[in-house]
Amino acid sequence: MANVILTGNTSGAITIAAPDVSGTNTLTLPASTGTLLTTTGVYDASTASTGYFDLPSGTTAQRPGSPATGMTRYNSTLSAMEYYNGYEWVALPKLPFNSISYLLVAGGAGGGQRVGGGGGAGGLLSGSTNLEIGTTYSFVVGAGGAGAATSVKGASGGNSTAFSLTASGGGGGSSFSLGAGVGGGSGGGGSYGGAGGAGTSGQGNAGGAGTSAIGNAPGGGGGGAGAVGQDYVLSPATGGAGGVGVASSITGTSTYYAGGGGAGVAGGTASAGGNGGGGAGSSGSSGIPGSAGTINTGGGGGGGGDISAGGNGGSGVVILSIPTAYYTGTTTGSPTVTTSGSNTILTFGTVGSGTYTA
């Protein structure tokens, strides 16, 4: 083992000289506090300490402007160590972080034409997952389906996807004499004797049935994420109401999503859409179409009246709630960014794709 000789000076610096031929290092101590200077590199070092090494610490924005390969630091934005590999900063270790909540709602379906059934709400999925630092996650927001303007069923809504999950688009409402509603995330309402379409387990519910038993022939309501669409009512002639959606507080405010569309009726009382963006049905021969489902809720469109078209379904939405301490701000798709308590909320509301990099 090399010997260390301690000497004093007045330069205000600590200097460790290179070892001489006898293997002796000279440590020159300052007369007052100063800067530690080494005349040789520090390498192949070991320690028996059970304490710690205090790494440089700073945010992502405070990274060195011209990093060199091998630089290591603690990133306080990511709550992780990182090093520069010559091309990019790499977090160590790449660990998941918890408490990432999501709400995934597909597009609602269009309502049927002429005593049409209400459109089914888009399928709804919610929960939490872990995101891995440095990984980019992709999302798709489903479009609302078009209401039927001729003797066809309402168009089904588009699927929404995130984290290898798929929320199924709502099923279209049926039109006069076309029978059952279409199955989907939630099923569309039937028309003129047709049954409601089936919902997807864990995402939504079935639509209600329509009837041909009376001249006013009310249709069935579209299913919602929280309840089935209601069947027609004979007396007084009333279309089936849309099924209620499901309330979520992921944004910090309790809001209903994925309500079914109300059914149309030839003469009598048209029905309301389900709470959660479902459009109301229309009544009579005024030609006024069923109401559209609300955008970014996945609500189903309302069914048309005696001669009118069905309303369009509302588009879906993907919402993420991320602890602000972990939020990176790296996105595509132009999500709306808000905060709620200690979380940052990303709302992807534009139909199409977007991404978030953890």
Overview of the structural elements:
- The chain is mainly β.
- The protein has three domains: 1-45, no CATH class; 55-93; 97-358, no CATH class.
- The protein contains no helices and 20 strands.
- The chain has strands spanning 3-8, 13-16, 24-29, 35-38, 57-58, 72-75, 80-84, 89-92, 96-105, 124-132, 136-141, 160-162, 165-167, 246-248, 255-257, 317-323, 330-332, 336-340, 343-348, 352-357.
- The strands form five sheets. Strands 10-9-16-19-18 form a five-stranded antiparallel β-sheet, with no helix packed on it. It has a five-stranded antiparallel β-sheet with strand order 13-12-11-20-17, with no helix packed on it.
- It is rod-shaped and about 90 Å long.
- The chain starts with a strand and ends with a strand.
Topology:
Blueprint (H helix, E strand, L loop, with lengths): L2 E6 L4 E4 L7 E6 L5 E4 L18 E2 L13 E4 L4 E5 L4 E4 L3 E10 L18 E9 L3 E6 L18 E3 L2 E3 L78 E3 L6 E3 L59 E7 L6 E3 L3 E5 L2 E6 L3 E6 L1
Parallel strand pairs: 1-3, 2-4, 5-6
Antiparallel strand pairs: 2-3, 6-7, 7-8, 9-10, 9-16, 11-12, 11-20, 12-13, 14-15, 16-19, 17-20, 18-19
Give short descriptive properties of this protein.
single chain, 358 residues, mainly beta, 28% strand, rod-shaped
Total domain modules:
3
Task: Report, as a whole number of angstroms, the end-to-end distance.
Answer: 48 Å
Low-confidence stretches: 1-6, 32-40
Helical percentage: under 10%
Q: Could you say which overall geometry the principal axes of the C-alpha atoms support?
A: rod-shaped
Tell me about the largest β-sheet.
5 strands, antiparallel
The total count of strands amounts to 20
Helical element count? 0
The main sheet orders its strands as 10-9-16-19-18
Order of helices and strands: EEEEEEEEEEEEEEEEEEEE
The helix-and-strand class reads mainly beta
Rounded to the nearest angstrom, the radius of gyration is 32 Å
Instruction: Give the amount of beta strand, in percent.
Output: 25-35%
Calculate the mean pLDDT score and round it: 88
